[in-house]
Specification:
Blueprint lengths: L5 E4 L6 H10 L4 E5 H5 L12 H24 L3 E5 L4 H10 L4 E6 L2 H8 L8 H13 L6 E4 L5 H18 L3
Parallel strand pairs: 1-3, 1-4, 2-3, 4-5
Protein name: Adenylyl-sulfate kinase
Organism: Kribbella antibiotica
InterPro entries: P-loop_NTPase (IPR027417)
């Protein structure tokens, strides 16, 4: 079996982490890497990706550390699902770091994102939440697939992405 790392991206409250975890739980051997968790290793002096050059540098560092983890899991036969908010620049970095990856961009309208966010803890200010959704729509990452998930529940999102992942894996040379 060809192991293909899966990268899920999209704005806040689109369902990246929930879908990624559900996908990982449904596989025989699979790791879930939430890049927000990797970035939070920086305790003192942490900067959000939108906080100037330091934020962008820490964003790239988190991405590279996530890719190191992914490569280590893949090297021992463990599949990998990564959840991260990508930009065109960071999607290109993922392609360099994990050349065989599949990037799926999950999209949701802003009203639905706000509705979904109301049911969970949100670590962003209202302005940051809106800014990230607007940026995702205005300058979307380079992705292999875009999936509109407004009308899908977690199971529907997971099944949709699983089909894309399987088709991509089967299209790769052995």
């Amino acid at each position: 079996m060809t192991l293909v790392p899966l990268i899920l991206t999209g704005g806040p409250a689109v369902g990246k982490s929930v879908t990624a975890r559900a996908l990982a739980e449904g596989r025989p051997r699979c790791a879930f890497i939430d890049v927000d968790d990797v970035r939070q290793f920086v305790v003192t002096g942490a900067a959000a990706p939108w906080d100037g050059e330091e934020g962008r540098a820490q964003q790239r560092l988190g991405l590279k550390n996530a890719c190191i983890l992914a490569r280590n899991f893949l090297a021992v036969g463990i599949e990998v699902v990564v959840a991260d908010v990508l930009t065109p620049e960071t999607s290109d970095l993922y392609r360099r770091e994990l050349s065989e990856c599949l990037i799926v961009h999950m999209t949701v309208g802003f009203p639905e994102a706000v509705r979904r966010a109301a049911s969970r803890k949100v670590w962003l200010t209202d302005d940051e939440f809106q800014m990230l959704h607007e940026a995702d729509a205005a300058d979307p990452p380079h992705a292999d697939h875009r999936v509109q998930v407004d009308t899908l529940d977690v199971q529907g999102q997971t099944e949709n992405v699983a089909r894309l992942w399987e088709a991509h894996r089967q299209s790769r040379p052995v």
